[in-house]
Amino acid sequence: MEELAFLENASASFVDLEMSGPPANPLPFGRATTGRAERVDAMVLNPVTGEHLEVSNIIYERHPDRRPPDRAYWVGRKLKKCIFGVVKECTLLRFRNDALVPWEVTSGKAAVKIMSWQKIRELQHIEDPIKEVSAMQYISEGGQHPHVMGVLDVLKDEEYLLLFMPFCSSGDLFGFVQQAGRFPEPMARYWFMQILEGLTHLQKKGVCHRDMSLENILVDEYRTAVVIDLGMCLRVPYDDGETGGVADVSAGTLRRLINPLIPCGKPNYISPEVLKSEVPFDGFAIDLWATAVMLFIMLVGLPPWEFAREEDPRFRMVARGGLERMLRSWNREISPLAADLLQKMLREDPRQRLSLEEVKVHPWVLYEGGGAVPQAPGHEEWRG
């Protein structure tokens, strides 16, 4: 039943959604759940060398019933700054139940976003990290997905909110494009298909990301693309199937269009209907639009436009079916199949764009020409 409902939504047209019911506001996410953070200095065993080392800045969840923690995080080097604080790399520790040397180093890594409560209070009107935590916990229900960033632990103390996540060691996909200039089509397809799997998971959960971009795709050590940054996402409304009211994705019905909202996201990637902010929009369609822009940049090495507005001559050319002509003028031609896919995903009218299911069965996506698994850039970086 759930799979049938997903397929119906993944193939639904804008017209289908207009007939599903009146536009609605996004649904709220559930309340974020947090554990109590305990920060200690302790002895740690290196199981490879047998050495004991006293280390500082070990964080774990303090359970009310005082049962032993499941794991701990040895917080290490700074990876980057973020709006509310800093992101750091962590080493996962295993509890040994030994009073003298209570922890043991493992090969596991994590990243922690350390957010100041003071900063959260000051800037919550701009961006709400509590909502991002709620969304990530919602997305992670039922287990981690390989192509969407999930949550390991969410802890707090008097000063900080601590969001622990899987560690991605190879930077973001935008860095790969910058290094390469542009991708050969087999490499672009390799990444694009993984991004589509991430979108599929979000759609199955009834979530619109709203900020899809190459900068928001991290790459792990196994060359897996992971969608990150759910700070702007929306929980899509669905028809309740009975009274004409609004339900969530679990209703197994068609989703509704969403009432206009203030535009957000990175300018290159925002769809024209969201930029205008005058008419209802389809949450899934705007993510697919941004994904098409991502594919364009991977294949061409440049963004298609600054803003998807009539005033931009590049947008006007693509909107009128001239994508291939524009690329010939740039001396950046791509295959006819790739151009066909992009042209059909980047139609100005959302009623004419491809659905997720149509994108997945497009001949360019299904092409079996293959290609080598891409290599990471020469430096390691985690960007969240």
TrEMBL record:
Alphabetic keyword roster: ATP-binding, Kinase, Nucleotide-binding, Serine/threonine-protein kinase, Transferase
Record carries keyword ATP-binding: yes
Signal peptide from the UniProt entry: none
InterPro entries in UniProt: Kinase-like_dom_sf (IPR011009), Prot_kinase_dom (IPR000719), Tyr_kinase_AS (IPR008266)
Keyword Nucleotide-binding applies: yes
GO terms assigned for molecular function: ATP binding; protein serine/threonine kinase activity
Tree of life domain: Eukaryota
Gene3D superfamilies linked: Transferase(Phosphotransferase) domain 1
Protein name, per record: Protein kinase domain-containing protein
